[in-house]
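Batch 3, record 17
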Amino acid sequence: MKVSTPQSSLRAFAVSLAIGSAMLLAGAMTGKAEAAPATDLHAQSPVIADLAPGSFGPAAAEVQIAEATDGIVNDADAVEEEKDAQSAHDDLFGESRYPSAATCGTCHPKQYEEWAISQHSYAQLSPVYMAINNFLNFSTSSSMGDFCLRCHNQVGANLGESPFISNLERHPTSREGITCVVCHRITKGYNKVSGRLALAEGSLLDPVMGPEGNAEMERVLKDDKYRVVTEEEELGRKIHTEAKKFEPISTPTFCGSCHDVTLFNGFRLEEAFSEYRLSPAADRGVTCQDCHMGKIQGIPSDFDYGPAAVVGGVPTKPRKLSNHLFSGPDYSVIHPGIFPHNADAQQLATLEQWLEYDHEAGWGTDEFEDNVSDDYEFPESWASIDDRYDAREILDIQFERLDFARKKRLEVLRNGYHLGDVKIEEATDDGIEFEGEVKNITDGHNVPTGFTGERVVWLEVTVKDAEGNVVFVSGDRDPNGDLRDLHSLYVHNGELPEDPYLFNLQSKFVVTQGRGGEREAVIPIPYTVTALPIVRPTTLSLVFAGEPTTERNHRKGIEPLGNRWASYEVDGDKLTGKGPYTASIRLNSQMVPVNLITAVQRVGFDYGMSAKDVADAVVEGADILWEKMVTFDVHNESTVSQNATGKAWIEGQLRR
Amino acid sequence: MIRKLQSAGGKTARSVVIGSTIIATAIGGIGAISDAARAEFFLGESRGSTKINDKPTKFFTTGDIPERPALIIELGENFLGEGNLQQGFELPTGAVWAPALWVFGTLRSAIQTIDTGIGDADRITDWANRFDFFANLQLTATEKIVLGIRPLDKNRGGQFSGYRFEGEANGDDEGFLDFTNANIRTLFAEGDIGSLFPILDPQGTSWLDYGFTVGRQPLIFQDGILLNDTQDALGFVRNNVRLPGVSNLRVSGSWSWDSVNRGATGIDNSGEREGDLNQFGLFTAFDTEFKTTNIDLIYTLDSDDNSADEDGDSLHAGISIAERIGRYSLTWRANGSLAIEDESDVVTDGALLSTELSWTPHGSDDTIWINPFVSLGNFTQAGRENIDGGGPLAALGILYASPNIGQFGSELDNKANDNFGGAIGYQAFWNDHWTNLGLEIAGFKDLGLEDNLQQGFEWQVGVGFQAQQKVTQQSLVQLEGFYALQEGEGDIDVDDDAYGGRLEFLYQF
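Prediction for the assembled complex:
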């Protein structure tokens, strides 16, 4: 086991004090880790049964206290000690106000593990979000303030953390982003507040809010086999004093408190909840929770049934269990030692140390370690081969968890988008014309929804002749990884032509110009109107006007159960005469465009990442949602079949 | 098919743009464009390397990014500030209110001189001040009450506190001017029915989230061309209405019952507000794959037989289509006014057709605009604020727009009265966009098709510049100047060219 540095030890110690107090007596969670992800898209989280907290759960914190103490004894630097002590105090203080998910995970391992790989838990760790937040403030005289922070990191905002500081400097619970208390320590129905939620402060012992009420909690409190206590000074397994029934938590309105985002200047950034309220799903009474907290991501799919908690190894009574994965289009682009959340990883090394661990070079694998030269220079933190092997063991689990998260991401996206019909308008020596249909197969909201201005969902179309020569392409990338739209730096700078056939469902932010109408903008700051863009409350009714006079979102998503057609034309002079020609039509999804990264690179990225590091990871995470192959025989129509137009055959191919 | 049209439209637009750019280059000496060569000149700062940066750069954090600029008063909780939020209290309606009072404003102070060249009018040089001061009582994220005053001016040209160095206006000669007041300019409440009465729909699954507004407030539609006025009004809005092929449809309706300042055709806007009429509006905006379309209708009911000062009913309509074709941004607008009965001082028949075309030279964030227009008849706005915004042409060019402070009006006449013209301009940016320079040539000529009620000029052509520099976190300075050649007609005696310049300091509280 890796020996922690003094600084990390103290921090770990502080966290462990809070966690450990609840966990020292709670260590009865047993079983072997079975973290291998299911291969079936509809499979459930691997952690529901036989969860082994030693693998990635919070129980690993049990051993932290002793190790942390070692660190204190060996530290000779008084200044650092004082700083660390302050940090430890801050951490402990924060934990007493807003308990960490790791604390909750002690008794709620299923929920913790689902959450730990979710977008909610990634919300604050995202270097893309951090750079956007910092760039917006840099460009607006900091007048955006904590606007972004309030949705991504309510605990950090409530603790008074600066929106701008690195995640390496944040309180551990703050790094957890949308952590347990963000939903379960809300006491009132705040409605559409764009994430500005007033969390109820309190330690683990204070009441929590949930959908079911206190009956089971009362039973647990009275049942001696759980050995739980509700007073700080009592010996025993500490637990909430009450589980209050909070009906709003089961309603779409509750989700809408963050998933309808309007700036104070009236800019409607996200409208998922507003879209939902007018949807057929709402008419039918299907809720956000039905589709996004059930067994299958993206459709009403019933719920798991089991214990909501495992207290000291003893499960509570079975009940309906909601899924806390909340899969969506985002994915991690940061070091796998940092995300997904993993107590073992946190115990083994600090974030800074994990950033030094070069997993891509193969550290901790036999292949690397057996062949590494003696003069290979490792950072001090990873000089020990045992540490590197320990880290690799953790990372192997992390990769499996990330792979599982990706499968669930595909699940929700495929339940939203569908590649429909392909119509062949013409297939002759004079050219080929065809259309592809993209459908929204949900009835709950548009697709894309939410942060639509940066969600890239596009068709990648490549037509080749029989020898494999490309005769047509659309939806391809520039050297930076961008699509060839106006936001591509290569197109913007005139080094590549714009893709005239690009089909992309990404909405576009548009800013008003001083004169000359509007212009598209990656980041919607109206600097053409004023050299002093600054956010203040709107002074005209933008509820009424619907948007500010300076910027808006040109939305391009598909309405519920709607469709769009993409048209393509291959000129006859592009055809090589070596038919038949084959078109590959792919519907792809990427969480953000590369141009967003280049637009905000001015303010740098957290974790010491370069813009290219971030962009490459974003591109690597892009998914093919659906693919179809179309063959055009331009000479002999009689060989073409099984198509609505009778001129081609279409082969659907699902790349699951 | 749509894409084919887009493609065809792009070729047409490109031809227009290239042709227009030749004119821009000849006149302004800037913005030589060659789309084919893809090597374009630009004045401002380069966007930098095309290739994404593969080296880690400094992560901006506290110190690199300034602290949040607090408002004048922040009670309840800070405006976009960190820290614990209020728990709030629950109303019987189910709404949770957490009141916060935020007081803020914009202070502007300008030294400016202008000679309109009209008749015996003197050159006016003044130091004028304006303070837009607001108190925002935020009840929830969607419900709020806004109170606004302008304690240093009375919303009339020349009625701004300060000092007049030369010239005469409103009977005041040189000397200090005091127009301090506590008149309420803005007082409205807005909210969302669904948020205000969650008890009616606890689940949030019904069509209850209608936005509403009531009170005295600015209303701006068609970029101020159709309506740009502060009125006492009630309005409702419905967002995200579903239609096949439409990503977003917004529909809103309004009723204004007082404080309506109907658009005037004369060179002097009377500024008299009418309290004896009703104005009804229906406004729609919808996004489709390539376009955003706004269709707006306003009917003014002002023909009460019992009223002695009726001016007649009128219908005003506007449609705009905003789109990007290739690299070119285009906004097409058609606005019209129709006097239901006889034409009068406040409503005449007419239409304004305009196009706003812009694009960015490769490699920069600069922008070039070409905004032509033609006005058939005498188009009148449904409502027009005395000072802010100006006439219907204000949106089309810097030189058509007033700075809205002191006696310095729009450099060129901004009415759409049987004329045609346009503006060609260039704006360059430096220093993280905190420095900009706009250059423009604009003008118009009378079409001579109508007997204008109070037409002032046969033609006008002006050149001007506008430079802005951010000075501190919350302030900027702006320097402007113009020179215009002109010829009067009708009852307007134009003796000379027009010119002017101004230096303004702005502080945002």
